[in-house]
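Researcher: Please predict.
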Amino acid sequence: MRAAPILIATSLIALLLGACAEGPAPASDCSPQAQWRAGLERRLPDPVCSEDAAKEAHLLGTELAGLRAEFDELAEQLRTTTGESAGALQRRQRQLQIDIEAIESEARIQGWITR
């Protein structure tokens, strides 16, 4: 009868020691710069980060990544397109350039990127 409580106590101690050995979870970096980079890499925003600046940085980083991807896709299409279709693709690319430059300028002003 006494063996069962000792076995339970031993199991609990082993479980607790195992949990302590894992160490603490890494701290979230909720800085706007970190969230900007996460957006550029198209990673999900950190759910712990609730500040408006971090949310905005992530949103704009994600948007910029999407615009750059679309610009690159259009460049690929332009290699095989001619005539009126090419003109439409070039106009869209120019609009994307304007939008990309605007977001990059905002990111520099905010200090999210330094180059």
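Model: The mean pLDDT is 85.
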